[in-house]
Structures are given as C-alpha cells and as structure tokens.
Amino acid sequence: MGTTNADASQAVEREDLLAIVADQRTNFLYTVADVTDEQAGRATTVSELTLGGLVKHLGEVQRTWLAVVDGTAPAKVEWTDLDPDGNRMTGGETLAGLVDAFRAAAAEFDRTVRQEPDLGRLVTLPQYPWSPPEPIAWTVRHVLLHVFREIAHHSGHADIIREALDGSSTTTRMAEAASRGGDVGGDA
Predict the structure, then answer these.
(1) What pLDDT digit, counting tens, does each position of 101-151 carry?
(2) What sections of 33-169 are H helices per DSSP?
(3) 54-64: per-residue pLDDT in tens?
(4) pLDDT band at residue 185, thresholds of 50, 70 and 90?
(5) CB 31 within 8 A of CB 154
C-alpha cells in the first residue's frame, strides 16, 4: 500500500509542528543559558517562579503529555498525587541536571509524536481536581499544540525573571547565538 496525499500532508504538518515546538524550546533555553544554580533558584519577582523551577516544570509537562499520547497516563490524578516541588528547584537539583531532563523529555516526546500514525487520533486526558466532571478527549495534534503553548507561556515568565535577575534579554541572547551559528551555549 503506497503513501497517500493525506499521509504526505500529515507528515509535513507533523514536522512543521515539531519544528515550531523545537524552536520555542531553543528560545526558552536561551533564557536560562549561563545562569548559576544559585541564580536558577532565585525568585526575582513577587511570584515563586524561578528559572530552575520553570525548566523542571516544562520537563515534567512534556513527560506528562507524552504519557497521555502513549496511553500510560493515569485516568485520575488527585491533589495528593501532585508533586509539591514540581515547580521548584530543590536543594539537591542543579540547573544542568534539570536542563538534561528537559532535553530528554523533549526528545522522547518528539520521538513519540513522529511515530504516531494519526495526529487526529483522540486521547483521553486524565481527570484532575480542576477538570470538568465529564471526560475530555483531545487529538494528538491538540496535545502537541498545547505543549507548544505551555513552553511559550512559560518562556515569557522566564524572560521576565531573567531580566530582573541580571538584565539579560532573551532576544539579545538569541542574536548572539545566531552570530555563533545558533548554539545556545553556556550551561544550558
């Protein structure tokens, strides 16, 4: 059985979506490049958000949605199931370790999406305490777009935290990286 136009179109769409997500991840990592562990754990605004906490959270976001796509996510998640330190860089953690976990989660998420035969396949989301009472199903495509939204959303938080931390601008760091051939560099 040969490849159809629909198959080819979905393959192009998949690679376009994954490229956009990868680009957003790279932009996020520019924001945390060359930050020390002490700086990564420091809150610079009135919120508790830190650069290290955001890296940790976004790694977990990708692992959580990967489990939804591959069918290994729990059907129900209670408040007690949630990690109270899931958005915080804790004492034994390093930024380098959190970035490695973020990158590993990203690679596994992308590999799973590339192997998914149908971006239109419905997956049932876990029931969280804040979920509506009726089950929710999204397409794999919707999950991929949601992961993009999460990374973009928290990239904005990270940018503000970094600017308050040391005045560094993500846009400037992106331009500097482009002049070096696109590498993020630094500790990230």
Answers:
(1) 999 999 999 999 999 999 999 999 999 999 999 999 999 999 999 999 999
(2) 37-40, 51-70, 95-115, 140-166
(3) 999 999 999 99
(4) low
(5) no
Task: Say which residues have a Cβ less than 8 Å from residue 21's Cβ, sequence separation at least 6.
Answer: 110, 144, 147, 148, 151
Whole-number Cα distances in Å, 161 to 22, 49, 168: 22, 8, 10
Both tokens assigned to 159: 């940018």
> Rounded to the nearest 5°, which phi and psi values hold at 116?
-70, 120
pTM across the whole model: 0.90
Q: Which residues contact 173 (CB under 8 A, 6 or more apart)?
A: 30, 31, 33
How do beta strands 137-139 and 122-124 pair? antiparallel
Task: Identify whether the C-beta of residue 87 lies closer than 8 Å to the C-beta of residue 48.
Answer: yes
Q: Is 129 helix (H, G, I), strand (E, B) or coil?
A: coil
Largest pairwise CA distance in the chain: 59
Q: 122 in helix, strand or coil?
A: strand
Question: What is the model's pLDDT at position 171?
Answer: 87
pLDDT of 184 above 80:
no
Q: How far apart are CA 124 and CA 186, in angstroms?
A: 39
Nearest to 90 by CA among 48, 62, 124: 48
DSSP type of residue 134: S
